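Q: My collaborator sent me two sequences in one message, no labels, and asked for predicted structures for both. Can we handle them in order? The first one she listed is below.
A: Yes, handling them in the order given. First sequence, followed by its structure tokens:
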Amino acid sequence: MSPTLFVLAAGMGSRYGGLKQLDELGPNGETIMDYSIYDALRAGFGKVVFVIRHSFEKEFVEKVQRKYEGIIPTEIVFQEVENIPEGFSYDTTREKPWGTNHAVLMGQQVINEPFAVINSDDYYGTESFQILADYLKSIAGKKGDYCMIGYRIENTLSESGAVNRGVCSTDEQGYLTSIIEREKIEREGGAISYKDNKGVEQIIPEGTHVSMNMWGFTPDYFDFSLLLFKVFLEQHAQNPKSEFYIPTVVNELIQQKNATVKVLDTPSKWFGVTYMEDRPLVILRINELNRKGVYPKKLW
């Protein structure tokens, strides 16, 4: 059974100033998503599901979905604020949906096989998709046996400013024990560090694994997510800024011993357009990958 690639593309990119998932960065107008899907196809994924907002459906279908006709099957699902279980209400001043794990829940209606979750605006690297595909193929039919691609912290920094990263802790067998979000991580004076709640600088050793939101799940993850989303809504539905994140659910499942998450090391270097200033650097890196023959100059 071929795994499915689930692409989170509903975010509006507020820091970037537009629909960055549709930004044409490759030499023939390719988006970062195009490179992810190309890598996924080579690695053995059999279908792509996009989660988007109704507000840009027409543009997305025309610019993104149609280019894959005859290449790989695709489907679209929608994430909106009102997509919550029956019997719950929320603060009507809320403008955005409920976060990344809410987006994942939208895939339940169309995904019945092991699946990967990625962001639409992050470049993950060829090796990462192959590592993830191989693991997902090995867990078909299992339950509660998940995985995460672990990026080495030094391979995920932005040259344009500080970044937030989910810093991972693992046990001796390489299974995730926790993810803690650290803010304003950057390299200063040769060392990678962040400031803790007291403003004290804390060093993060090179080689430390961080999450770049590249996950592997089996379909039972949807059932766990729905149960925990209801708990979340009971506590936070009236907070218009509250969000239901993937690491929140994963941490809860690990603590409850309902699932294990294998952290799979990757040598790939992440890049993405976190800030507008990142855009020229991303274009340069894509051109370099083309020159090295990692990708053809025209993907499709």
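Q: And the one she listed second?
A: Here it is, processed independently of the first:
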Amino acid sequence: MKVYHYTDLNGLKGIIESNSLWATNINFLNDEDEMHHGISAFENTLIHLKDDLSDKSIGILRIAIEGHRLHQARHNYNISFCQNPDLLSQWRGYGSSQGVCLEFDSDELIEALDFGTSRFFSGDVFYTKPDSTLKAKEEILKFLNDADFLEQKNNSAIHEFVGTSELVNSLTPFFKHESFQEECEYRIVIQPETKSDQVCFRVNGLGLIPYIQIKAKQITPHTGLLPLRSVRIGPCKNRDFLLEGIGFLLNCNGYSDVEYSFTETPFRA
């Protein structure tokens, strides 16, 4: 699947020169309720599961949700992508700093990135109302009623708790408020094994933003490079000048086969 990462020229320079993508702590993204939204979606669902799950299973789910809230939620890091390669709202966000849109294939990218010992999950974001429960209920029941899970649960008393905790940890980061729906976000969520493992900080207009750097593997079909397919240049004044500089940057760092294009959005940056 094609996915697109919007950034500015400073971001592009950092990505290309380091062969890496920055995963931002989810609590510091543009949605101030980012992690709370996913946890709330699961909590609100509990009361609607009484006809589908035993009291024991609901109790285990409640413990897993609370455990995630207390211990795991603040240590999720996210790399965001869009499924639209020419989205006006993204160009508006980067218009004052010369935006670009980087195209990847999601499977190629996952294969190329070195996550080390960190756990990672990838997929589309679920956009829901704050009090919506339907999507969370669907995902919970799909997992808990899976034949493989049921078999392992019957063979091991602890397996239900471990599996339920895994479900909560892996799914809550993918719930987002419906007002962000036009972003059509695909994300890669990384959960480091050590909470302070390789955490870096950058500064923006709001304050300090924690992130971790996810580099390309040194031994890949791309020989340590990211599998970048194309660069689309956003609204700008000096197209030829900007294109020449971007081409120079990419070629000097081994990205000689990347295609270029310009946005078709008539937005005056």
